[in-house]
Structure formats: C-alpha cells, structure tokens
Design goal:
With 624 residues, the chain is α/β, with parallel strands linked by helices. The chain folds into 4 domains: 9-202, Rossmann fold; 210-407, P-loop containing nucleotide triphosphate hydrolases (Rossmann fold); 415-524, Winged helix-like DNA-binding domain superfamily/Winged helix DNA-binding domain (Arc Repressor Mutant, subunit A); 553-623, Orthogonal Bundle (DNA polymerase, domain 1), CATH 1.10.150.80. It has 26 helices and 17 strands. It is globular. The protein binds adenosine-5'-diphosphate, magnesium ion (MG) and zinc ion. Zinc ion binds next to helix 15 and helix 16.
Length: 624
C-alpha cells in the first residue's frame, strides 16, 4: 500500500476516519509526529488518541509499529482499520504459525501501513531482524502508563520497548499515549522510554457528556435492577469488586431476562474472550465484571457504567466510568455507595498479601499511599458539591462551580443543625478514649451510640459507658453520616493507618464553648437521570454531532437495526460499522445521495462505498 501524497491531514481524516474536524490536542500531536518530533499525549479515555498515530502512519512512508498491551483488542482495532480501508495487521500469540508467517511475508513486502504488536514480541530474534530490514515510519506506545511501576497496570514486558528501539538501525519517531494523568506516571513514561525533547500535550479531562451520580441505596440489588431496566435500550458495564459478586449479579440478571454476561480473572481464557466479544458485538447488553475488564476496550457505544462497589481510587473510578460515552452520546456514570465498601477496602489495604520483598517501612508506605488513594474516592462519594468539579479538582483542572449535569448539581440540599447529635458523638469518642486509652474506629463508635450489644462492644466494656445507647432512636447509617461530617469539618481526625477516630482541639468548641454544628443534607433524592437527550445540553465539540430528538428517533432506531443486521452478516462489532454518533447524525441529516451521505460525521470514503447503499435505501424507505 502506498502512502497517500495527494491528501493533507484533513483529507486523510475524512477519507479514512470520516471526521471533518480534529479534536482537542490531535492536530498538535499529529503535526509533531509528521515533523519528526517525539510526543507524549495524555488524553482521557475516548479522547481520540488512536488517530494521533494512525493518521501520521498513513501519511509517512513505511510501516508504523503500535505497541499495545491487550492481545484480545488488537484484532478489533485492526478490523476497524481494515474496514476503513487501511492495510493493517497485528502480531501476537493468538496467531497460528501459518498466519504469523503470512503477516511476516506481507510486512517484509511493505504491505502494511500499521502493525499492532504485543510487547512480548519485541525481543524475538526473527522479529527484530525482520524489522531491521524495514522502513519504520513511527513507533507508537499505546496505554503507555503500563511502563510505570506506579501505574495500576504495570506490565514488565513494556520495559522491553527500550532495548528494542536501541536495536533498530535508525531510531524512528516515538510517541506515547495514555489516559493516566498523574505527574509521576507521565515522568516515568518520558524517562523510561527516553523520549527526545517530546512535545507534551495534555487535553481537557472533562467529559461533558457524562452524567455523574452517587447513590446510597438501602438495597443495592433492587436499585441496580431498576437502573438497568430504565436503560434497557443501551449497553452498559457493571463493575463489582469481587468475582463472587460478578457471578451472583450476572446470574440474577440473566434470570431476570437481561442479556448479561460476565468477566473476571477467574474465568477460563476461552470464556473470557467469548464474553468480551459478546459484549463488543452487542450480543450481550450488560457486562458484569471486575476491574480486570476494560483496559483498552474501544467499544464506543457504552451508555452507562454502574459501580456496584466503590473502586480503590478516584483515578481508577474515572478511568472505569470513562468507558461510557466514548461516542459523545450522553451517558451515565453511577456509583452505588455503602459504608461497608469503605470498611472492606480498608481491611484489604491493611492486610495486603504477604510480600517478603517489602520491608516493614515500605509496607507502611504502601498502606499510607493506598489509604490516601481510598480517601480520594470516599471524598467523592461524600461530597455534596459538584461531582464533576470534585474530579477536576483532584486532577488539578480548571472547573466551574456547578456543572448542571451531575447528581449533586441537580439535587436539592439544605443545611441542618446537628449540634445536639454532634455533642453526643464527640463526648462518646472522648469517653471511649478515656476508658481504653486508645481510639477505635467509626463502626464501634456508632455501635456504642446506638446501644448495640455486639461482641466487640461487650468485650471492651463499652456498654458500661454513659454514652452507650444515647442515640438509640437514630438509624446507624445516619449516625455514621454525622460522624463523618464531623470529620470533614475538622472536629474529628482519623488515623490513616489503623483508622482510630479521635477528637481534635476544635472539638472543645462544640463540647464546652457552645459552638453550633451544621450539616448539609440532601432533601430529596436526585431526580433519576433522564434519558431524554434533548433535556441535557451538550457542549459544542469540534465535530458537532446531531442529537437524537423525537423527530429523528424512529429513523435512528431503524438505522441501528440495519447496523445490527450488517454486523451479524459481516461478523463485525456494530460500532466498527458506524458509531452511534454517526447514526444520530445520519438520522438528522437524512441524506438522499452518496454526496450527502459523505457529509455525515463519521462516514469516510471506504465506508461510504461499502455501506452507503444499504443505509441510503433504508433512509429512503423510511422517508417515503
Ligand atoms: P482513546 O484511545 O483516546 O480512548 P479512541 O482513539 O478510541 O480514543 O477514539 C474514541 C472515539 O472518538 C472513536 O469512536 C473515534 O472514532 C472518535 N474520534 C476520534 N477522533 C475524532 C474526531 N476528530 N472527530 C470525531 N470523532 C473522533
Ligand atoms: Mg485507545
Ligand atoms: Zn455537577
């Protein structure tokens, strides 16, 4: 395949990818690569990183190598490229030796513009000598945070990239991409990959089309069921913290007639692959999974991500939740919070798997770090302020006071005087401390106040305190909320390692000097996120896509049905044919000719040639 010299980058963008404008950061990154400069792109999930290396690959002479961590997803990416008219291939352990040989032969002949590789390949002698004889246009490292031991997804095999590059006769331009925002990980990527004077581009982390909400359901299972049935026409992911929960919930959903599938590290490889594929191909509507699922998942039509349990950090949360709405459609990110999740997480942090490589000090440091990470997500669950704002603050991004598209911005809050309750709680904390000479955790404090006679309370003799049972009439969850509010307002402090709660000097103001305490409470539950798309305003993006309205809804549905039919026939994931955003734009523009069809966002020349007629016929049928 020859490099297309007749088109500039805009021409290539339209012809192969079907888009008419670049998104934030793409132009800069592409120009750097085209000009021979290394680059690092930090962009959120769904931000459009792939085009930053795929497009230059089409414009430069030679073959681009893309290193990507997930074998299971390379095939998808390559299929999508092929479907858009790009000659591409992948090399990983899923290929038979015949297939591998065929790819090598084509590669040697310079057939491919883009080859995806698993990092494990990079030190095979055969592969290295093959590449030494090739013209390499660029090397792109996708999910580059895998190179950092500070990242959650560290892959030792990523460290082979450097040796590999050093064995090439001429070092090609090198680019790295990740969605991980932390400084440390970014620095690691630059240092370890030895990027040379790279252009650094970090784009906005805000995802305006995502609706954020934290719910505190009494019964998570019932709430989950309701949330999913309200979103019957969408695909979604439900994240759980344990394999057990995945098994239980996916089985319950299937029993209830939901097309659900499951994914966790304990399943046999074959089933995992099958289930992932069912979800990618829309054969399953709901993926119930542990956090083992998702990295590099490019399914663009995920309409919601529900967390059944709280994840370990805000970073992990934003990454997982961010898998919703990559096509720019309004999508929901809902976290089901319960205080029990915090306790489980703390317990797990404090009893890490025996690791003999770590000294006592190092272990303490790890525990401290993990607790701090946990605090970030607990803070998110508890804040009464804008949830999006909380996330942007955490990543040190600019934000507005209120986003108008999160559970808290839509809820009604009021201030309530809780001085008497605060006094009871603070004096209980003091009495426990005086009695035991050490401080205890929140649960025990709540149990004591509520008059519980459980084993721990009796063992420690806390039932003999005058504060035992002082708040008997108040639900435990409510007492806990007030305890936590007192922590947030600086009257109580929690030991970061063992979780003991003690009074701060400020507590004296409430106990002895008549200071009042107020707490923000949610008046009514936030209105359930409305699926009505028109009600939510969308920020204008570079490539403005149509919003499905009542008028276009019918056609949109018909186009989706056609897409599903084609995806069956061609055995391709539906979103590889056209994204939801493309179908929405198609429904709005209702093109009547091939020229008009090409005007639809997301329609490139190859896809227009391949699918244009079928879609134009469907539109004509619908409009007649
Ligand atoms: P990332 O790898 O950053 O998570 P992808 O490269 O997979 O994101 O892109 C996510 C989605 O955004 C894809 O559906 C892609 O087609 C779309 N996209 C990328 N760039 C553009 C653009 N310039 N205009 C419109 N859509 C785009
Ligand atoms: Mg990607
Ligand atoms: Zn908000």
């Amino acid at each position: 395949m020859y490099t297309d010299k007749s088109l500039d980058k805009y021409g290539i963008l339209k012809r192969y990818f079907g888009h008419s404008a670049f998104r934030d950061g793409q132009t800069e990154l592409i120009d750097a690569v085209l000009g021979g400069r290394d680059a690092i792109g930090v962009m959120p999930t769904g931000g459009g990183k792939s085009i930053c290396y795929q497009l230059p690959a089409l414009m430069l002479d030679g073959t681009a190598l893309v290193i990507s961590p997930l074998i299971s997803l390379m095939k998808d990416q390559v299929t999508a490229l092929q479907n858009a008219g790009v000659s591409a291939a992948f090399i990983n352990s899923s290929l038979s030796s015949d297939e591998l040989r065929a790819v090598y032969v084509n590669m040697r002949a310079g057939e491919y513009k883009i080859v995806y590789l698993a990092p494990e390949r990079l030190d095979g002698e055969g592969f290295v000598s093959l590449v030494q004889g090739l013209k390499i246009s660029l090397v792109a490292v996708d999910e580059a945070h895998c190179i950092s031991q500070w990242g959650q997804d560290f892959r030792p095999s990523y460290l082979r990239i450097i040796d590999f590059l050093e064995r090439l006769p001429r070092r090609p331009v090198l680019t790295a991409f990740t969605a991980t925002a932390t400084r440390q990980v970014r620095d690691d990527i630059e240092l370890i990959l030895k990027l040379r004077g790279p252009l650094r581009v970090t784009t906005g982390f805000d995802r305006p089309n995502l609706y954020f909400e934290v719910l505190r359901p009494k019964n998570k299972d019932l709430t989950l069921r309701a949330l999913i049935s309200q979103r019957r026409d969408k695909c979604g992911i439900v994240y759980c913290s344990t394999r057990n929960a995945v098994e239980k919930l996916s089985a319950a959903m299937c029993d209830a007639g939901v097309r659900a599938t499951r994914y966790h590290a304990g399943l046999p490889d074959k089933e995992r692959r099958q289930n992932q594929e069912d979800f990618l191909y829309d054969r399953a509507a709901v993926m119930v999974a542990t956090n083992a699922f998702g990295m590099g998942i490019d399914k663009s039509n995920v309409g919601y991500v529900i967390h059944y349990n709280m994840p370990k950090s805000l970073e992990a949360y934003y990454q997982e939740a961010g898998r919703a709405g990559r096509d720019g459609e309004n999508s929901d990110c809902i976290l089901l919070y319960s205080a029990g999740d915090v306790q489980t997480a703390k317990y797990l942090i404090q009893s890490p798997v025996e690791n003999e490589d770590l000294s006592e000090n190092q272990r303490d440091a790890v525990i401290k770090r993990d607790i701090a990470l946990l605090d970030s997500i607990v803070g998110y669950c508890k804040t009464t302020g804008c949830l999006r704002g909380y996330i942007l603050d955490y990543f040190a991004r600019a934000r507005e006071d209120s986003c108008g598209n999160c559970g808290n911005c839509r809820a009604v809050f009021s201030s309530k005087d809780v001085t008497p309750e605060a006094q009871m709680i603070l004096s209980c904390v003091k009495r426990i401390r005086d009695k035991l000479n050490y401080s205890v955790g929140v649960t025990l404090i709540v149990h004591t106040l509520c008059g519980s006679a459980d084993r721990r309370v009796l063992e420690l003799g806390l039932d003999s305190l005058p504060t035992h049972g002082l708040m008997r009439g108040t639900p435990k969850a409510q007492v806990r909320d007030i305890v936590e509010a007192l922590g947030a307002q600086g009257y109580l402090s929690t030991d970061p390692v063992h979780g003991g709660v003690s009074l701060t000097p400020e507590a004296g103001n409430v106990l002895f000097r008549g200071e009042n305490v107020e707490m923000t409470v949610r008046e009514a539950p936030a209105p359930a996120p409305v699926p009505a798309r028109e009600k939510r305003q969308k920020k204008k993006k570079a490539d403005t896509v149509a919003v499905v309205t009542d008028e276009t809804d019918g056609l949109f549905a018909a186009l989706k049905t056609l897409r599903f039919k084609l995806s069956r026939e061609e055995n391709l994931p539906a979103y590889i044919i056209f994204s939801n955003a493309a179908l929405a734009d198609m429904a709005a523009k209702a093109p009547r000719s091939m020229a008009e069809f090409l005007d639809v966002s997301g329609v490139g020349e190859v896809k227009a040639a391949r699918y244009g007629k079928a879609f134009l016929d469907e539109i004509a049928k619908y409009k007649s």
